[in-house]
Design a protein that fits this description.
single chain; alpha/beta; binds S-adenosylmethionine
Length: 222
């Protein structure tokens, strides 16, 4: 790890809203995020593979009565969003450093209301490691309440094509599957949704500058 990454990691580790359970062990907040961490009964939305956490922070600013948790394994990246949340004094934000593979160690059945997958790694050679692959969907099904939405936003045609196939093959109910969301914004149900879709993450900015088209799907898994 480079010097700056080490510096950021050393800082973020001490933030009160940065939670880091030992990998493979149960998180002490499992089943208790509302009661022990947020101290309210509001819905919980998680951003998986949040990187710098633009959706976590952006959504938290817009919706103070919803709790947001950014999840990633790279603490030095999460430092950016965690620092911003601190500066903005957002009480409805936490960052959880873990692998999504172990997500059921951090949330119990039905504890999560909604999931965002933002510019997830396409995993070109390892389809089973894609965050929309069946083993991951099975994990989400354990923590996501019935009817809760999964939002997938990506530049990757490989990941999107694969995810669309998964949605259709497993008959996941879907509201929208768009191969060009900025052309299809009018298909979304509300101004709020249109506005939300325009939050740009770090990777979105990078890929858009290279001419990538941004894709979006909103679906359920039960
Ligand atoms: C391409 S980056 C996108 C980051 C951010 N969402 C954005 O749009 O800028 C993918 C992120 O997912 C994280 N990631 C990938 N697979 C993961 C896994 N299995 N568990 C936790 N984090 C993962 C990586 O560490 C990385 O930060």
């Amino acid at each position: 790890m480079g010097k700056d990454k080490l510096r950021r990691f050393a800082i973020v580790e001490h933030y009160p809203h940065f939670i880091q359970p030992p990998l493979g062990e149960k998180c002490s907040l499992l089943g208790k995020w509302r009661q022990d961490y947020f101290k309210n009964d509001n819905p919980i939305v998680v951003e998986l593979g949040c990187g710098k956490g633009e959706y976590t922070v952006g959504l938290a600013q817009r919706n103070p009565t919803i709790n947001y948790i950014g999840v990633d394994i790279k603490g030095a990246r999460m430092y950016i969003g965690a620092k911003e949340a601190l500066e903005l004094d957002l009480k409805n934000v936490a960052f959880l450093r873990t692998k999504v593979d172990f997500i059921t160690d951090s949330f119990e059945k039905d504890e999560v209301d909604e999931i965002w997958l933002t510019f997830s790694d396409p995993q070109r050679k390892k389809p089973n490691k894609r965050l929309t692959a069946k083993p991951f969907i099975e994990r989400y099904r354990k923590i996501l309440k019935t009817g809760g939405f999964i939002h997938l936003k990506t530049d990757s045609s490989i990941l999107f094509e694969y995810s669309e196939e998964q949605i259709k093959e497993h008959k996941y109910p879907h509201e929208i599957i768009s191969w060009n969301i900025y052309e299809d914004l009018h298909l979304l149900g509300s101004d709020e949704e249109r506005e939300t879709l325009q939050i740009r993450t770090h990777y979105e900015t990078l890929f858009t500058a290279k001419g990538s088209i941004i894709k979006y799907a909103k679906f359920r898994i039960h």
